[in-house]
Amino acid sequence: MSTVTPGTFTPAPGAAPLAQQVRAQAAMETKLLLRNGEQLLIALVIPVLALVGGVVGAERLGLTFDHRVVDVLTPGVLALGVLSTSFTSLAIATGFERRYGLIKRLGASPLPRFGLLLGKVIALFGVMALQAIVISAVGFALGWRPHGGLVGVVVAVAGAFLGTLAFASLGLFMAGTLRAEATLAAANLIYLLLMMGGGVVLPHSSYGGGGGVLRLLPSGALGDVMRSGLIDGQCDALGMFVLVFWAIAGSLLAGRFFKWE
């Protein structure tokens, strides 16, 4: 007669490894972003329309820049994609998750709260990779030819990474302190203001005397970094510094004031 080692069939409940939890959370966040029509509108449709409309409109109006219109606008619209996903979409989604109590319930799960936020940020990078592919494809169809080479691509990716950290932290700060309805209104309003006058799509030099101030905003800094990398193959040191500053400041604000319920 065979014997069974004591404890063989005893349940051993426990949390999965942290990395596995974060991956699962990131996968879920990505699916939620891609299934939400409003988020897709902000993340893909508006940037593509801004690129096509900007190129066609500039050519019809006779607007000129130091480089070809499509070469100037495409890096700016790539920066706009970072802003739309990491700030506007994240703030709105998190605000309503907080309102419905989802954030509170997830905070009580085995997944640590910093793991929840990390999963959201990882999901953002996945969505932004899709954004970059779509926007770049449209830019190439319009005649975009990036001249920055490999160095320019590295600079642009680094800028997008820092821009994501900066805007995501600011978006979480907003979503964690305001009511969901206020977050919805504020996030959309800030998005429109920065898209039109924040130095993200157009170079800061297009705004006359106020362009110097725009360089200190995360939107203007990100636009400058993307353009300097993909047009000139150079790194805008001031832009990088500004993005690092806003990433640190936003993280401190979100960590201090974010309310889980």
UniProtKB/TrEMBL annotation:
Domain ABC-2 type transporter transmembrane: start-end pairs: 21-206
Entry-linked InterPro entries: ABC2_TM (IPR013525), Nod_factor_ABC_transporter (IPR051784)
Membrane-topology descriptor: Multi-pass membrane protein
TM regions (residue ranges): 40-58, 78-96, 117-144, 150-175, 182-202, 237-258
Keywords, ordered alphabetically: Membrane, Transmembrane, Transmembrane helix
Pfam families per record: ABC2_membrane
Subcellular location: Membrane
The protein's name: Transport permease protein
Protein's organism: Nocardioides phosphati
